[in-house]
Amino acid sequence: MKENVYLNKGDLNDFKLKLNEFNDKLAQAGQEYVEIKFKIINGEAEKSEKQHYIDTHKKAQLAYKEIANSPIFKDNFLRAKAQLDKINQKDETFESAKENYIEAKNLYKASKMAIRERGISGELSKQSEIALELKNISFRYANSQPLVVKNVSVKVNHGEYVAIIGHNGSGKSTLSKLIIGVLTPIEGSMHVFGNHVTRNNLNIIRRFLGIVFQNPDNQFIGSTVKDDIAFGLENRRINPKLMQEKIEAAAKKVRMERFLDHEPLMLSGGQKQRVAIASALALSPDIIIFDEATSMLDPKGKREVKEIMVELKNTREKTIFSITHDMDEILNADKVMVMNGGNLVKFGTPKEILKERDFLRSIHLDIPFIAQVEEALNEVGFKINNTENLDELVVKICKK
Ligand SMILES: Nc1ncnc2c1ncn2[C@@H]1O[C@H](COP(=O)(O)OP(=O)(O)OP(=O)(O)O)[C@@H](O)[C@H]1O
């Protein structure tokens, strides 16, 4: 930071970049330490190897501390504040400098806190509002086999609900496995909140992600709903008092708070999936992937789960990916990714995608029920288009 009165955006960005750079190094060192610990436990590495990772982690921690506790930073903050206080003429530049100053001060505070609270395994910060960016991702299951995901690039902003559609075998599930890091792309790169995903930081990146699978019965571990939601939290060694709060809050979000003592296997399909969503939500992921989460449910269960997904979308606190064969669901989404033969062939709003009815049919996709009704109405002379739900359709018909 320069020694001037006004803390400008450039200074602030320099500070952020520095903090992020050191934060990443610390997170990476923490992750490597955790990995070596597991390797030693599994007999895949010698105990003597551990010391190197402990030292690297300590060094990274010191480097980070040095930045966050640097007297130069501190002095500059104090001087900037004293000078801001002296200024009488409070114009636009002053206001923006003040905002920058406050943001820098908060960053400074947060970084000190991060050091205090950080355990041995690090955490990555959000460096971008783009929740997920895929850049030219390709994948094949074996060298002798063809590519099943081909050069896929996409950017999804935090808070968006993205439906991924495509005919059987088009690559949707493979793509979701690449996103959660179960599979590794053979080409291309992936960024989660601006963090480049690498082998070393994958486990930390996974903390941003939650997934709800297709079969509700395969997702249960606990003997009660509460135990089940607690499972992931226990793995993260959350303190028991906080755990209770988190379990209740997550159950409430899916309207299952009255079922905490129930046995999961006694619940309906829709309720089971809601518990699976609560288990994912309890870990506070920023991105949730629904992998055909409604496909095995009866109509009531489907409705219940879709309602929860829309409620989650409306909070704009989560980025949602939903792999689905249910073409009606795409109307709930902000964006739709259309996969065909491993390629991302369309990416746009539901309205933009649904304009291309002939194209959708050509790649063996149905169009949503409402769009089919519109088509039938158009054939008999009612000019109705781009309706988003049944209520809107009824209103439009009544106006004709
Ligand atoms: N484990 C695997 N080994 C080899 N090939 C695989 C494997 N899993 C999927 N594939 C192939 O990869 C391609 C993409 O499959 P993927 O399951 O990603 O498609 P999908 O769009 O999710 O299909 P569906 O809607 O039927 O679930 C298909 O050709 C499939 O046969």
TrEMBL record:
GO terms for molecular function: ATP binding; ATP hydrolysis activity; ATPase-coupled transmembrane transporter activity. SUPFAM superfamilies: P-loop containing nucleoside triphosphate hydrolases. The keyword Cell membrane applies. The keyword ATP-binding applies. Residues 132-366 form the ABC transporter domain. The lineage of its organism: Bacteria, Bacillati, Mycoplasmatota, Mollicutes, Entomoplasmatales. It comes from Spiroplasma alleghenense. The gene is cbiO. SMART domains: AAA (SM00382). Belongs to the ABC transporter superfamily. Keywords: ATP-binding, Cell membrane, Membrane, Nucleotide-binding, Translocase, Transport. One of its GO terms (cellular component) is ATP-binding cassette (ABC) transporter complex. This is Cobalt ABC transporter ATP-binding subunit. CDD domains: ABC_cobalt_CbiO_domain1. It is found in: Cell membrane. InterPro entries: AAA+_ATPase, ABC_transporter-like_ATP-bd, ABC_transporter-like_CS, ABC_transpr_CbiO/EcfA_su, ECF_ABC_transporter_ATP-bd, EcfA_1, P-loop_NTPase.
